[in-house]
Amino acid sequence: MKIYIKYLITAFSKSFLYVFLVILSLVFILSILTELEFFREIDVKPLFPIYLSLLNAPTTIFEMFPFIFLISTQFFFINLFYDNQIQIFKYSGLKNSSIIIIVSSFSMILGIIIIILFYNFSSNLKNVYLEFKSKYSSDDKYLAVITKNGLWIKDKLDNKISIVNASRIDGKFLIDTFITQFNENYEVERNIHSEKINIAENSWVAYNVKVFKDNSSSEKSKLKIQSNFDYQKIKSLFSNLSSLSMFGLIELRKNYISLNYSTTEVNMQINKILTFPIYLTLMTVLASIIMFNTKKFKSTILKISVGLFSSVVIYYLNNVLNVMGKTEKISIILSITIPLLTLFFISSFLLYKINEK
């Protein structure tokens, strides 16, 4: 490796590590405050909120990596501009575009490492965090999971516990569903089989029902079943995909397909992760171009503000398109690629005469 490449990578790594640690500290502090507020009236050990904050912080940091890369790049160039270090590289024949290529290539490598190591690490911690937090949540009396055997729901209402297993979901209907209802001592009261259940509201409507109770059975054309769940609640329970590793997401996608459940959000998450290194690289390129174009600005704060303003605009554009993708107003591919293409074309336009800056 050439000396100047090693120097640039080392300098960028130092800036990245500095910004990463600062952002991590801020996220951790805010997370502690959030957990303290949550446990304000719950009796737990004093260190428990801190432990939960440690578990939850990496997932938040993952979402903030685009900002971290942008700010790191800006600090990297601020240090290069200090005492005209950038001029030394220019006199040595190193073009501005070459510096951008070196830094952005290193960002791509970092991005790949982040999705392979950091993302899976943070998702595992998030999963542990949700397991601990659910014990103190008002939602601990019910649970819903999707496996290769269908949708499983544990529901507790009026001192009765129901275990629901549906073979698949068709819109707002559970298809081929078997329900076992227990009393509070987990003694079986009755079993219910229904070909189709409307779960649009908390008062479920089951059709073509067979009820098994006390070694006898009866049939009903329609039966109402009260539940803590409705369609929207069930759907929202599977929206926290950040607690699943890449392999977990792929497995969940297979289970969704077998259940006839929408895979849109899972596909969004998978595509987001796969394109994340490209996103981080483009943020590095954009920050580099901004710094070269604002090199004559005397105020460092103004330079950073320009970068942050650009990143905020990109962040909201990204969020809007993600929502449109999740609601299927546009395709998943478009919702993922439009922000990336926007960054690419803006960067390409601003690269004009970059070596003259």
List keywords for this structure.
7 strands; 357 residues
Radius of gyration: 26 Å
Mean pLDDT, to the nearest integer, reads: 84
Low-confidence stretches: none
How many strands in all?
Answer: 7
Helix-strand sequence = HHHHEEEEEEEHHHHHH
Identify the overall geometry: elongated
Could you say which structural class the secondary elements and strand pairing correspond to? Answer: alpha+beta
| Biggest sheet descriptor | 7 strands, antiparallel
Number of alpha- plus pi-helical segments: 10
Distance between the amino and carboxyl termini: 27 Å
Strand order of the largest sheet: 1-2-3-4-5-6-7
Q: In what range is the share of β-strand residues? A: 15-25%
Summarize the amount of helix as a percent range: 55-70%
Question: Can you put this structure into words, describing what you see?
Answer:
It is elongated and about 90 Å long. By secondary structure, it is of the alpha+beta class. The protein has helices at residues 3-38, 48-81, 85-91, 96-134, 231-237, 246-259, 264-274, 276-293, 300-326, 332-350, and strands at 143-147, 150-157, 160-170, 173-182, 188-198, 203-213, 216-226. It has a seven-stranded antiparallel beta sheet with strand order 1-2-3-4-5-6-7, covered by helices on one side.
